[in-house]
Amino acid sequence: MPVWQAAMEIAEAVFTMTDLLPRKEDYGLTSQMRRAALSISANIAEAFGRKHTADKNHFYYFARGSVFETQSHLEYGFKVKYFNDESYDRLTEKLDAIAKSLNKIILSLKSSQPRPRP
């Protein structure tokens, strides 16, 4: 899935970005940001492997939540001057694209679910 591939690219980029953070952040921002970024692709993979639509959507929602968690950590790192404008902008753009892709997948799955009869 292209969205999974994009999520893996984000995880790799976050790993590289956080490798440059001060050692005092190893158990703080570095760890949290890496986990959140990796969680995006992991939840997409989990969703893909589920059989039932409701289960799939459940994990796509988790993936979307991890996108916003990663963005929040990125925002903090940018505000405290750990990340420069270029890396911040590039990663924000990629995170936005993944969020939009996940929204489309979620809406598509919701519209394909049978509606309960009154």
CATH class: Mainly Alpha
Corresponding CATH superfamily: 23S rRNA-intervening sequence
Structural class category: mainly alpha
User: What composes the largest sheet?
Assistant: none
Got a strand count? 0
Could you describe the 3D structure shown?
The protein is built from four helices and no strands. The chain is mainly α. It has a single domain, classed as de novo design (two linked rop proteins) (Up-down Bundle), CATH 1.20.1440. It is elongated and about 55 Å long.
Could you give the topology of this structure?
Blueprint: H1 2-19, H2 29-49, H3 53-79, H4 85-112
Helix pairs in contact: 1-2, 1-4, 2-3, 3-4
What would the keywords be for this entry?
mainly alpha; elongated; de novo design (two linked rop proteins)
Brief digest:
The chain is an all-alpha fold and 118 residues long. Helices cover 80% and strands 0% of the residues.
